[in-house]
Specification:
The chain is of the alpha/beta class. It is 40% helix and 14% strand. The longest helix has 19 residues. Bound molecules: phosphoric acid mono(formamide)ester and norvaline (NVA). Phosphoric acid mono(formamide)ester binds next to helix 2.
């Protein structure tokens, strides 16, 4: 059974294969209507159940379209309208959904919940974001970086802001794909050190600094995300602490001239990034968002042993 709860469940070789697969499949259907099924329909007849305990635009629509383009079908469930929202256990929900669906994608809060789901499911489980990690986002991000002509080994990625779920998965990817991450974040907002330690053990250079300029200096890619993630308190103190880490034009000026700006979205213009940067020439956010679709297809194919 192939669950995709974190990037290390697949490993570096499989992630590289997913990126190549996504590039090929994206090219093969270039210009087609979005709802048309891929010529080879590799997951024909497969049903994906999606369970959302948090809001989503990209993950929800891209997975829905991904399984359809692969020839399958889907059902989207919001936990509040499920018995899960009234206290039915995660384990029982996993057992029941396993009788209807060929795979389950879940977005939840505590990471332990998706581990529980996977432990009791008889079908592959995919992490569509937890408080700990967001692996699907990072497959799309790596695809976007490669598409924009940058090789992953040795790449210098700068992260400014909160040490959150997205950063944890970027750090995990660094150890698997051999790139480096310079993290500029205020004290108290570091990423999960288990990911940092694992990435360093994998040979990645992971630097933590309180100096945002040091983090961004000569970077190939600059990444930001919301300062307040879903489920977190909108604390004024946190916003104040984050302010020096805003990605604005002056900050981007410290990165390499051809550096990319990336953001998983949704963005808060004027907080973690200024309008001039996110809507500027170095920003690749719309490619990044579209690539969620192409990446999800490769993740699904990996779950079913096709990659
Ligand atoms: N980036 C991302 O996961 O977006 P959604 O929250 O809209 O799914
Ligand atoms: N860190 C953000 C990512 C949203 C896609 C959150 O967890 O809300």
């Amino acid at each position: 059974m192939r669950h995709f709860l974190n990037l290390s469940d697949a490993g570096g070789n499989a992630i590289a294969a997913m990126i190549n697969d996504a590039i090929d499949r994206k090219a093969a259907r270039h210009g087609w209507p979005r709802g048309k099924v891929d010529a080879d329909a590799p997951l024909a007849g497969h049903m994906l159940a999606m369970v959302f305990e948090k809001n989503s635009t990209r993950t929800r629509v891209s997975f829905d379209m991904a399984i359809r383009q692969l020839g399958g079908t889907s059902v989207v469930l919001n936990s509040t309208s499920m018995q899960l929202g009234r206290g039915e256990s995660v384990a029982d929900t996993a057992r029941v959904l396993s009788g209807y669906a060929d795979a389950i994608m879940s977005r939840t809060d505590e990471h332990a919940k998706i581990e529980e789901l996977a432990a009791h499911a008889a079908v592959p489980v995919i992490n569509g974001l937890t408080d700990l990690s967001h692996p699907c986002q990072i497959v799309a991000d790596l695809l976007t970086i490669v598409e924009h002509g940058k090789a992953l080994p040795g790449l210098e990625v700068a992260w400014l802001g909160d040490g959150n779920n997205v950063l944890n998965s970027i750090v995990e990817a660094a150890g698997l794909m051999k790139f480096n991450v310079r993290i500029g974040c205020p004290e108290g907002y570091d990423p999960d050190m288990r990911f940092v330690d694992a990435a360093r053990a994998g040979g990645a250079n992971i630097t933590l600094t309180r100096d945002p300029v040091k983090a961004v200096q000569d970077a190939d890619v600059v990444v930001a995300d919301t300062w307040i993630s879903m489920g977190q308190d909108h604390a004024e103190a946190k916003l104040q602490a984050m302010m020096p880490y805003q990605v604005n034009e002056a900050m981007m000026g410290h990165a390499k001239d051809d550096a990319l700006f990336m953001h998983c979205l949704p963005a808060h213009r004027g907080e973690e990034v200024t309008e001039a940067v996110i809507d500027g020439p170095q920003s690749v956010i719309w490619d990044e968002a579209e690539n969620r679709l192409h990446a999800q297809k490769s993740i699904l194919r990996w779950c079913f042993g096709q990659i």
